[in-house]
Each structure stands twice: as C-alpha cells, then as structure tokens.
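Before a colleague's protein record goes any further, I have to sign it off. I want your independent view on whether this chain really folds as the tokens say. The record follows directly below this note.
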Amino acid sequence: MTKDPNCPFCDPEKKEVIIAQNVTAYAVEDGYPVTPLHTLIIPRRHTLDYFTMTSQERRDAEALIIYLRDKITSEDPTVLGFNIGVNCGKIAGQSVMHAHIHLIPRRKGDNENPRGGVRSVMPCKTC
C-alpha cells in the first residue's frame, strides 16, 4: 500500500481516532469541522484525489458514507440533511493532497439560507 511519510492522512501515528473503516478506506472526524460530526472518508492508499481513487476505493468510501449517515442520524436527531463534498486540486480548495470525502451533517437553522448548497462557495452564484 502506497504511503507518503509527509502526508497527515498516511501518518501511522495520526492523532485522529478512526470512527469507521473497511478494507480500503477509513473515517475520522474533521479537524476543522464545518458543523458538529463533520467527517472525512479517506482511502488508506495515498492517492491524490477522487479521480485517482480505484473503483474499489470509491465503493468502500460510499459504503462508509451510508454507514456514517445512519450512525450520525441515529445519534443526533437534529441532523436533517447532509452535504457530501470532494475538493480536487488546489484551485478547487483541496488543502491536503490525499483524496478525502467530506460528509457534513446539516441541521435546521445552521445556515440562514441553505438554498443552492455548494453554489454558495462562489460569490454571487446564489444572488
């Protein structure tokens, strides 16, 4: 399995607690959460972004997303929706160059106007 010694997601001494895992992926709470229980799903193999993940890694990541959705909604009934996001490349906001998927729980009132979802990352896309 490919690892990068300088990558925080490859570091075997990582401080994050793994909250779910399967053969090719694992999940941890985001270190800079957008909302409580914001989770990252990360392939074990060091790979750049979603587009370089293998089909098995994508299937395993999807299985973790479904599992975590059920876990989060059963633990916190105020969670009524989710954003699932992947940043691919620095220009798209990727800050750790190891593929990872954001699972962001959403609650009523956590954003004054959530209409348009991720469109709000670009100025005036929701104007």
About this structure: The chain has one domain: 20-121. Residues 55-75 form the longest helix (21 residues). The two ends are 46 Å apart (CA to CA).
